[in-house]
Amino acid sequence: MEYLSNDKLVIVGAAGMIGSNMAQTALMMKLTPNICLxxxxxxxxxxxxxxxxxxxxxxANITATSDVAEAFKxxxxxxxxxxxxxxxxxxxxxxxxxxxxxxxxxxxxxxQYAPDxxxxxxxxxPADITGLITLLYSGLKPNQVSTLAAxxxxxLRNELAKYFKVPADEIQMPRTYGGHGEQMAVFASTxxxxxxxxxxxxxxxxxxxxxxxxxKQRVIQGGKNIIDLRxxxxxxxxxxxxxxxxxxxxxxxxxxxxxGTYVNNGEYNHIMMAMETTVDANGVTVKPVQGTPxxxxxxxxxxxHLCTLRDEVISLGIMPPIHDWSKINPNL
Amino acid sequence: MEYLSNDKLVIVGAAGMIGSNMAQTALMMKLTPNICLxxxxxxxxxxxxxxxxxxxxxxANITATSDVAEAFKxxxxxxxxxxxxxxxxxxxxxxxxxxxxxxxxxxxxxxQYAPDxxxxxxxxxPADITGLITLLYSGLKPNQVSTLAAxxxxxLRNELAKYFKVPADEIQMPRTYGGHGEQMAVFASTxxxxxxxxxxxxxxxxxxxxxxxxxKQRVIQGGKNIIDLRxxxxxxxxxxxxxxxxxxxxxxxxxxxxxGTYVNNGEYNHIMMAMETTVDANGVTVKPVQGTPxxxxxxxxxxxHLCTLRDEVISLGIMPPIHDWSKINPNL
Lengths: 332, 332
Prior knowledge:
The structure is a homodimer. Chain A is built from twelve helices and 15 strands. The first copy, chain A, is of the alpha/beta class. Chain A has a domain at 8-148: Rossmann fold, CATH 3.40.50.720. In chain A, the strands form four sheets. The first copy, chain A, has an eight-stranded mixed beta sheet with strand order 3-2-1-4-5-6-12-13, with helices on both faces. Chains A and B meet through helix 1, helix 2, helix 6, helix 9 and helix 10 of A and helix 1, helix 2, helix 6, helix 9 and helix 10 of B.
């Protein structure tokens, strides 16, 4: 079995649980033999590199470095989980500020060291915001930067499959758009359960309104639930899904879930959020979101929440006011 | 892409780092859609199952249970990392005894609940011994139980590739046989480096004897090195390699590394240890080990060390004396 490409793929944050899983996943998917692991934590990085070399993936050329210039040199694809985790005593704003600054530096590093990069996937939280900042400072085009947004939809799929006791594949087009978690907009109207429109099931005996509300709550709390159960943050699913995204951007198997992407369409402006998209070798293409008026209203609310977060980052001085973005990135 | 088989594959110890990686790896390799996760630690198990469901592997049917009877029902393949880790204050003998007892119960559970299992891969330490105990109590045939032994050889390959600064694929047939770690027997005579026999390089300026000795020491300490670097035991490489083993036993891609297997050939008797093998849908077939007289002497020493460990387990009363084994398992 051949590799999909020989292009250099860089995993940022490769010493961590998500990053190390990303690297293994990319090697198993045979995306490229040329995988470069980057992390500022050198011992852990070397440990991950050694483990992966000891897997003996055929043809793999696994490099590892804590020097960003070396890591990004000739990089064609970058996937990054390299944010900070929320630590005891940190406020939400501390986390936002810290990861926003990391995203700013990431964008600048991409611009300086990886000007020919084709696609970047950003997954550290809040990903809609860190992805937006990365896009701004990297100077890349909007179709070249995407963020992980699929997990809410795959969690919805899982909850529906469990509730109706059907195989998960019988749940078609489960969709959440907009922001992540509390602010996501659930689009029941897109979804079918064993061929039947979910919208027609909600509010019936098969799925009473309050059960549906409880289910949406479980989707929102999906990440917290993993922490409660495993005693650690979810790492396998974000790693796997983000590598599926970069695989699609590398010209591999199409990615069939919502993707966080830059939106500036008159209705939603200067924002990064989960939309219906296609991802292929041309990057991300946004498709129209189909839904009921109520669902679109929820998406509006989700959008406004993301605007508030974005404006908070602007007020922190990490991003300039929107009218100045094009000075940094003419593509915006 | 279709699954290789529909046979039920059980991952034992699935709540752990190795087990959860095994499950993800097996799903990514598309070995079978029917993966059952088993662990006595129910919350962690559920967390892993949820993460994997949230990956949305196409066609996957992921079940999870802490009931061994349910887990093993109709199981055709089992991979187990479900041993105990060495904890503070435990002696080596405590660990041996604890994991030997776990292996005894595992074997009995297989016999009772999974009589039609085709192949079992055992990887919890000391794997040569826990695999032997599992084989004894399961009543399976020797070709149906194997243990993870490849890591010493893949570590040797990695050290050679780094030392000679050549791609790892240029290191052909790096081999260690017999026991694991300190007691492994390194067979330099099987190996070539960029086409040149390693035996002809050792002792020259290209690889002085003392450098070769240091390299073997790094291979022996390979697992400890990962702990030092990552702050946790190696989990990605053992998980990946053991799933490659079961993949071969399921009729998939051939496994090209040494495998721990039952040996009773007149020269080495009533023991499980790393040998040259083929693994395919017929299970493990032992092939002759080729080496120099000195290498065979090292293998003899490794064998004798394993006999001592085995006899220690017999003296603990966990296995009966060898002459009584056939009463428990007529295949031995």
